[in-house]
Amino acid sequence: MHRFYAPDIETVNLLPEEEAQHCVRVLRLKEGDQVEVVDGKGHLFLCEIVSANHKNCAVSIVEKTDVAPHWGCRLTVVIAPTKNIDRFEWMLEKSVEMGVDRIIPVLCRYSERKQLKTERLNKILVSAMKQSLKATLPQLDELTPVMDVINSVGKDGQRFIAYCDKEIPRRDLVKEYKKGSDVVIMIGPEGDFSKEEIRAALDAGFVPVTLGKSRLRTETAGVFAVAAVHTINQL
Amino acid sequence: MHRFYAPDIETVNLLPEEEAQHCVRVLRLKEGDQVEVVDGKGHLFLCEIVSANHKNCAVSIVEKTDVAPHWGCRLTVVIAPTKNIDRFEWMLEKSVEMGVDRIIPVLCRYSERKQLKTERLNKILVSAMKQSLKATLPQLDELTPVMDVINSVGKDGQRFIAYCDKEIPRRDLVKEYKKGSDVVIMIGPEGDFSKEEIRAALDAGFVPVTLGKSRLRTETAGVFAVAAVHTINQL
Description:
The structure is a homodimer of 235-residue chains.
Chain A (H helix, E strand, L loop, with lengths): L2 E3 L11 H10 L7 E5 L4 E10 L4 E10 L8 E5 L5 H14 L3 E6 L10 H14 L7 E2 L3 E2 H5 L7 E5 L8 E2 H4 L6 E5 L7 H9 L3 E4 L7 H17 L1
Parallel strand pairs in A: 1-2, 5-6, 5-11, 6-7, 6-8, 9-11, 9-12, 10-12
Antiparallel strand pairs in A: 2-3, 3-4
Helix pairs in contact in A: 2-3, 2-7
C-alpha cells in the first residue's frame, strides 16, 4: 500500500500538495482507495480517500497506530557536511534507514562546506522515512557552529567525539558505547577537527574515540557510527 | 604523499598508463619526487621517480612494507546489484573503506540488474583502496548465479543469508557472528530472495538472519552487514 507523509493529517484531513499530486496524478489513486499516512511524529494512519482531484486529496482516517522508533535510545549524529553534497545526502538517507533521531550539521574550522540547504535535505529525510517504513521524522538542525554544539547537546547521555588526530589518545567507540544509552556522536570534516575543537569537546565531557583502524571518509564514518550503535543495541 | 596503484610495480618499475598520466600531467610530479605505490596484494612501496615524461613514469623502489588487512578475518559480501548502479557503487566504495576481502555480485530470481560492467566497478575499488590507505584490492567476482554461490563459497567459515521474508524464521546476524570468524553474508535484491533460493541456502548450511528491525535497502544492508562485522570484531 502506498505511503504518504502528512504532518498535520489529524487536524487537516488533506494530503499536502506535493503528496496529493503524486497520489492523484502519478499513482492515479481515487475515492475509496486506501493509503497509509505517517505524520512524522510516530503515528501511522490507515486512511481512505474521500475525494481526489487535480488540486487536492482528502482522506478520512480509518485507523491510527503508534510506530515508535524501535531502537530504544536517542541517537544524535553531529557531522560536518561534506564538500560533495551527494555524499552528505547519502549519509542522511542511510542514517534514517538504519535509525537516527537527530542530525546536527556542524560547522568546524576545517569545514569544506559552510552553507547548507536544509529544506532540500529534509525531503531526503522524509523519503527515507517513508521507504524504511518509519513514522518518525528525524530532527535535522540548521548548520551549527561546533562550539555551540559542544556546549548544548546530549548532557543526559553518552557523548563521543571521533577524530583522526593520533596525538590525542582515543578509545574505541564500540567498546565505550553502552547498549541502550542515549548517545551523541560527533564526526568532523575532511580535514578533521582542529586540536582546539577536540580539547574543547574533551573539556566539556565528550569521550574521545576512534571508529576502528580503517580510515573512513566523513560520510562513511557517520554511517559506520550509526550502524555500530545499532549493532551493539542488538547484542 | 601521493599514492598510486601498480599491481606489477616489483617486476615493471613503471606506473600504469592512467596512473602515470595523473602523476605527470595533473600532479606535475618529477624526477626525484617520492610517491607511494600499492600493488593491491598487501604491499606498500615508497618509491622515487627516476624519469617522468608525457608517456610514462618510471620509479625506483626505496622501501617495501607489508600492509595486511587489519580486520583479522576474511569477509565476503554476496550481494545482488541494485537497479540504480550509483547505489551499488556507493556500497562498493563504503565496503572497501570499512574493509572487505571479496565481493560477489549475485544474480537472483528477482534481480533488478542482470548485467554488470565489472571493469568500471574495479576502478571504484582501486580508488577506495587508495583513499582508505589500504594495499590489498578486494576480489570482485563477475555476476554469478545465486545457486553457484550457494554451492561454492565460504565452507570454512560462517555463512549467512539475510532476507526480509518473515515466514522463514531468522536469527540476528549480530548475535550469530563469531568475532574473528571468516564470514560470507548474502544479501538479496530489492524484491528479496525467493523462497526457493532461501531454502537452497539453508539446505547448504547457510544460517538465516535478519540485520535488525529496520527495513534496509539492498545497498544499505550490505554496508550495515560489513559495519556490524567490524563492530563485533572490535569488541
